[in-house]
Amino acid sequence: MTAYIEIRWHGRAQQGVVTAAKVLGEACLRLGKYVQAFPEFGPERMGAPVRAFNRISSEPIRLHCQVTEPKYVLIADSTLIGTALSKGIESSGSVTEGATEDAVFIVNTPKSPDEMRSELGLKGKKAHVYTVDASKISLETIARLMPNTPLLGALAKATDVITLDALVENFKENYSKKFSPKVVEGNIAAMNRGFQEVKGE
Amino acid sequence: MAVTMVKKQAGLTGNSAVAYAMKQINPDVCAAYPITPSTQIMEDFSSYVADGKVDTELITAESEHSAMSACIGASAAGARVMTATSSQGLALMWEMLYIASGLRLPIVLANVNRALSAPINIHCDHSDSMGARDSGWIQIYSETVQEAYDNLFQAVRIAESEKVLLPVMVCLDGFITSHAIENISLLEDAEVSQFVGGYKAQHPMLDTDNPVTYGAMTLPDSYIIFKHQQSEAIGRAKDVVVEVGKEFGNRFGREYGLMEKYRLDDADVAIVILSSAAGTTKVAVDELRAKGKKVGLLRPRLFRPFPFKEIADALKSIKAVACLDRVDSFSGFGSPLFNEIRSTLYEFEKRPKVINKIFGLGGRDYKVKDAVGVFEELLKIAETGKVETLIKYITL
């Protein structure tokens, strides 16, 4: 079990967390890793809470259950913090649920890591908190509210899960056919700015 | 959909992998009606059709009943035919499933397993395909994205084998496999076409020089003879599954058989489980083995025809076995795997205790700790010889 890196993404439908997990998985695969990237779908409507997961390993991955004890938690929408929707239904727990003691949280917010630490209820805990204004970055680079892409850049800076180069190379190679050059450039700029602007404590 | 490969490794969802396999098989006809969670198979495949990557005639039917009806017509006409569905879609195909197998039509269907309504649910369990287990279709269950992809090519060969001539259903778990990106090693198009070969129907309806009738009225003088032949044919499919799995292994390095045994040979207790949940169970096996507990796993790959002899041989020396069914057949006496396996072990004087767990309905997560819990109960049964509860829901 310890051989796996486990990541959980939180967002709302249309914010791109499922795509972010996909793009991260592809970038890790390019580095020769075994990967899983999978979403958790609930009622399919805009704004509904959505979670997505990654497992990354040097060994083939056999687990086919949800990620319940993530080391890395990325939160694309800070309004999800403090909400444990439909209490009692396991799929809608709070963003901190099950996270490892030394977990890394990366939150899309203009606030400081210290403020977010309080909001996440992690005062005095070992967990690491990073923040990045991914919404603002995405509006300025992609001209759409797509906090997923800057969050990927922030992940590359705050952790050793992936490098910025690997993210950018993967994006250029896999998405140049799908998107216009302008969109590809915008996304790469968003990753770069997420990398540069993420703040730790 | 563009597929990017690195050193022949790609990252694909189960659905995209199935669609890619269909593209490589390039069937003559595909008739389908989309339904979650198999929709993306047809989305991807219809792009291949629109982009001219395949020669397939795509029939977008108005329902699954019509989709299967069109598959049957096309197959009887002599075409190689494929389709995909899930859940209520398979249920709506119901009466046509029996026509396909009764007419001995080698149609290949990818079934992305999903719960049946009511209440409505889009997530994984095996209620859909297990309900169709007596429809005369061969059923193969896939653990991973790779396996779902590999199974599709083998399904074509098995279905079209002269010894068989029956439809094949390749099952993969909804969302867990269909929507998860995993590493997958893809075959070259030329390798696929060499392996599946061309298809020439033996008695196509469109061969007007040699007119044939399909599905004629049969009265008590002959119906049972057709059914007896069909029964013999599905029995023969077992050996063909083994032959085709071996040939696939020789060519591509990934061999498949009737079942997978994981650390089973010297095990005291074992879990029998299908599809993706087997992977999670293997992790539990390794954890308990590291603590010196002799636990193992048997994952049937072929469920219809049920390889009862081989499975009984694999399990007969085990002390206690739990069959984990991702379906409740509401029989009052357990679910399909349990029924089959307990029954098959009846032949032996000394046989394992067999219990049934119903798990994971409607996509409820099945975790390593759930498997560990079952193993611990089995170890206790092995020690005491006493079963407390024969049939029980877990992951509640």
Brief characterization of the structure:
Chain A has 201 residues and is α/β, with parallel strands linked by helices.
Q: Could you please describe the fold and organization of this structure?
A:
The complex is a heterodimer of chains A (201) and B (396). Chain A contains six helices and six strands. Helix content of chain A is 34%, strand content 19%. Chain A has one domain (5-197): Pyruvate-ferredoxin oxidoreductase, PFOR, domain III (Pyruvate-ferredoxin Oxidoreductase, domain 3), CATH 3.40.920. Chain A has a six-stranded mixed β-sheet, sandwiched between helices. Chain A is α/β, with parallel strands linked by helices. Chain B folds into two domains: 9-252, Rossmann fold (3-Layer(aba) Sandwich); 259-393, Rossmann fold. Chain B is built from 13 helices and 15 strands. A seven-stranded mixed β-sheet of chain B has the order 3-2-4-5-7-6-12, with helices on both faces. A six-stranded mixed β-sheet of chain B has the order 9-11-10-13-14-15, sandwiched between helices. In chain B, strands 1-8 form a two-stranded antiparallel sheet. In chain B, α1 (14-25) runs parallel beside α2 (39-50), α7 (145-160) crosses α9 and α10 (277-290) crosses α13. Chain B is globular, with a radius of gyration of 21 Å. Chain B starts with 8 loop residues before the first strand and ends with a strand. The model of chain B has no long low-confidence stretch (mean pLDDT 97). The interface between A and B is medium-sized, with 28 and 29 residues. β2 of chain A pairs antiparallel with β8 (181-185) of chain B, so a sheet runs across the interface.
